[in-house]
């Protein structure tokens, strides 16, 4: 009688051993595919203040990546005297020409319509404690893309930076 019991037990042990091997192999095969995933959206958070400074002036994104920029004005001075925006320009844009034209463009929040072809994306002009969020696709061509606050004279006092597309 005992002789007949041995075979089912052996068969069961072999099945278990087979399962164990499969489980060990699975994670090894899937690890390389999961590891090098860059974040889908590049989040850029900037603040501006009454001292006419951006909190950060250099960002890196991947070519063609979805980018979300949030600008917050932490200042307390009125918008007519100390408004701030974030304007991202094309690579090689003429910043002098752009800021000269911006001075005359109060009606369009200092983003000159005549040079709209130089603008990749821009926020609204923000008064104290206001915030604006914009989303756009990073350029596909690598390089340095200038951004600035186009409120009169703010570029000259240092409200500028670059987004580096890699
Ligand atoms: Cu400004």
Give an overview of the whole structure:
The strands form 2 sheets. The protein has a 5-stranded mixed beta sheet, with no helix packed on it. With 166 residues, it is of the alpha/beta class. It has helices spanning 2-34, 79-82, 95-103; strands spanning 41-48, 58-61, 66-73, 87-89, 119-122, 131-137, 143-148, 160-165. Helix content is 28%, strand content 28%. The chain has a single domain, classed as Sandwich (Immunoglobulin-like). The structure holds copper (II) ion.
How far apart are the first and last residues' alpha carbons, in Å? Answer: 75 Å
CATH structural architecture: Sandwich
Task: Supply Rg.
Answer: 28 Å
Mean pLDDT: 85
Bound ligands: copper (II) ion
Number of domains: 1
- Structural category: alpha/beta
The CATH class is identified as Mainly Beta
Strand content: 25-35%
Number of DSSP-assigned strands: 8
CATH fold call: Immunoglobulin-like
**Unreliable stretches, pLDDT < 50, 5 or more residues?**
1-31
Q: Largest beta sheet, briefly?
A: 5 strands, mixed
Order of helices and strands: HEEEHEHEEEE
By CATH's scheme, which homologous superfamily applies?
Cupredoxins -  blue copper proteins
Number of helices: 3
């Amino acid at each position: 009688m005992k002789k007949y019991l041995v075979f089912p037990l052996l068969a069961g042990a072999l099945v278990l051993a087979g399962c164990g091997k499969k489980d060990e192999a699975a994670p090894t095969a899937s690890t390389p595919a999961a590891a090098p995933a860059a974040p889908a959206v590049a989040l850029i958070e900037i603040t501006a203040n009454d001292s006419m400074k951006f909190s950060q002036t250099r960002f890196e994104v991947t070519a063609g990546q979805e980018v979300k920029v949030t600008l917050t004005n932490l200042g307390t001075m009125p918008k007519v005297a100390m408004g701030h925006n974030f304007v991202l320009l094309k690579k090689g844009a003429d910043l002098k020409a752009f800021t000269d034209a911006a001075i005359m463009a109060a009606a369009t929040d200092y983003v000159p319509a005549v040079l709209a072809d130089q603008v990749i994306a821009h926020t609204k002009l923000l008064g104290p404690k206001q915030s604006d969020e914009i989303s756009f696709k990073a350029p596909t061509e690598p390089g340095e893309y200038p951004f600035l606050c186009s409120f009169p004279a703010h570029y000259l006092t240092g409200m500028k930076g670059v987004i580096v597309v890699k």
